Amino acid sequence: MISILIVGIVDWHYGYIFATGDFHYHLDRIEALASSIRSFDFLPKVNGYFVGGYGYASSLFYPDVFLYPAAFLKLVGASAVTSYLSTLVLINFFTLFLGYIAGNRMDFSTEKSLLFTLMYTLNAYRLQTLFSRQDLGELMGMMFFPLVLSEMLKLKNGQTNEWYVLAFAMAGVMCSHTISVFMMVLFSSMFVIINLRVFLNKQRMFAITKAALLTLSISAGIYLPILEQMKNQKYALTTDPLINIANEVIPIKNLLFNSLGNQVFHARTVNLGIVILLALFIYGFYNLRHNKNMDITLIALFLFWTCTDLFPWKFFDHSIFAMIQFPWRFFSVISLLVTYLIVNDDLHIFSKKVIKYSVVSFIIFNAIALGQQTVIQSQDRLESYSEFDNVDSYYIGAGHEYLPEQVKYSNILNHKKRPIEYKSNKMRISNVALNHQSITFNFNTYKNVAKVQLPLIYYKGYQSSVYGKNVESTVPKLSSNGLTEISLKGNGVITIQYRNTFIQIFGAIISLLTVIGLILVQLEFRKLKFISLPTRIPVLFTRETSNGEWLNQILTDINEPNDLNAKNN
Questions:
Q1: pLDDT score at 211
Q2: CA of 495: how far to CAs of 433, 438, 448, in Å?
Q3: Residue of 406, 62, 409, 63 lying closest to 235 (CA atoms)
Q4: CB under 8 Å to 330, separation ≥6 — which residues?
Q5: Which of the chain's ends, N or C, has fewer CB atoms near its CB within 10 Å?
Q6: What are the pLDDT digits (tens) for 432-465?
Q7: Burial code of 438-449, b = ≥16 C-beta within 10 A, e = fewer?
Q8: pLDDT per position as a tens digit, 541-564
Q9: Which bin fits 52, alpha (ψ -120 to 50), beta or left (φ > 0)?
């Protein structure tokens, strides 16, 4: 119910949808995935649906794992409104659910676990991301943040037997949002470094190593293809980034003012919210003075520093740390850590029920107020159902990050009819068939070797199949303007389409085998856990004994429960 209400108070209005931020791009991702599944491509990498058929490697660089429910809704006839809002509701539900599980695993009581997940789900930055930015990938990654925290705390406390839960949490982040992966790796690394004396322990290090290997195995099908593409060619993501992180820092006075006022998200008003900000300073001062929760406190304060203009980002704007694009993305981690400090309650604030209920009421009130103010300040963002359902495949994100560096997107937009370019004095092309999956045409080069530029944005993996006598075809390659180029000779028919590379197939096999292996291990574990007594008996008779005492004792132990039952009856 809470999951639905969070979405209902802002995003859904009778006849209208509140649509802001990146919603266009994520609608396209859902539509592209559904389109690929219709063509029996269940693990797409380059989506031919995007850019009117030119194709875009959104699924390759931006994990689609948690968009499959929305895509299947589209396949059975659901509208874009239904599939999109359902996705938001599911994100909220699993954020609440996993937050509660994490609270339990941090040894919070049921009541405190509920408080933890409610405060985390309703923290101001997450709501800004949900209401205003609508960054589905980041929201999905944040679902798993609490579990990463709970498992790092468990490892610190020497509870290493359930290391696979950390792997599950990190794999969940890796299947959601690449930037969130970096933030969680950074947090985990800082946590280990601060507690290095504790973690320099064979059991803990072995548990972390196993978790890391399992995480990498599960996500191999996602990240091996990314590494392959990045090695093969350059993309706008690295050569022409839209955002310079040094220009995105927030003056500390603005951050404090906007947080205390719970301001609605705009480019320069993103904030932590009054609850998280005040708690950060209160618990920061208290913990530093009393030497409590020093690891969590120091990390939260350090990340807060990096989000302000006091941090020298100009020295890091070309480093790996710049990949987060906006320093304020760390607000998600800060909000998580501060929520833990609040619920852990070293100040015993929640010892009185009236204070507990007052804090919860204040958090809920702030969430509702933020939602209403978001809509009021952006009335022009309300779109009718029909407008929202009119999905445009040319929305690929503001930065066009996954385009080859040679591509000028304005040129693509000026050639939406997707012309095939070639020199007519060297060859003839006829019977052209263009769709979102392939390009097929007849050609005759009159014994020349002729170059053809195809209306396909190039990514490694395009292949050609040529038919005819004495015909030759080169492997599709990158043209000077970022499209796909091929050289032909002879008279025949050719089909060009994207096919999975060896690395993509290899990575998918690793991921699939890992997941299957985990399922089989879990089933075997359950089988052993609930095994019946008769199944155990043959094992007991495999040992040799010099006399009958050992056997008599076993038989006595086995029969005693039945004797007791007989007496009770």
A1: 96
A2: 9, 7, 19
A3: 406
A4: 183, 303, 304, 306, 307, 324
A5: C
A6: 999 998 999 999 999 889 999 999 999 999 999 9
A7: bbbbbbbbeeee
A8: 444 444 555 445 544 444 444 444
A9: left
Distance CA 81, CA 254 (A): 36
Per-residue pLDDT reduced to its tens digit, 23-42: 899 999 999 999 999 999 99
SS3 of 243, please?
coil
Pairing of strands 428-434, 382-384: unpaired
Give Cα 509 distance to the centre of its chain: 20
Contact status, residue 394 vs residue 51, Cβ threshold 8 Å: yes
- Residues facing residue 115 across a β-bridge: none
Distance from C-alpha of 240 to C-alpha of 222, rounded to nearest angstrom: 23
Q: What's 249-287 look like in SS3?
A: CECHHHHHHHHHCCCCCCCCCCCCCHHHHHHHHHHHHHH
**Side-chain-facing half-sphere of 494: CA atoms under 13 Å:** 25
- What's the pLDDT score for residue 558? 45
User: Any idea which residue has 């320069």 for tokens?
Assistant: 268
CB 495 within 8 A of CB 440: yes
Strand 477-478, strand 462-467: pairing: unpaired
* SS3 call for 397: coil
Note the pLDDT of residue 531: 52
Q: CB–CB of 373/264 below 8 Å?
A: yes
Residue 177 and residue 132 in contact, taking contact as beta carbons nearer than 8 Å: no
CA gap 226, 526 in Å, rounded: 36
pTM for this one?
0.89
At 222, list the tokens.
């996602």
Nearest to 16 by CA among 387, 392, 377, 373: 387
* Tally of residues, the chain: 569
- Show Cβ contacts of residue 259 under 8 Å, excluding neighbours closer than 6 positions: 124, 271, 272, 273, 274, 276, 277
State the burial class of residue 88 (Cβ atoms within 10 Å of its Cβ: 0-12, 13-18, 19+). buried
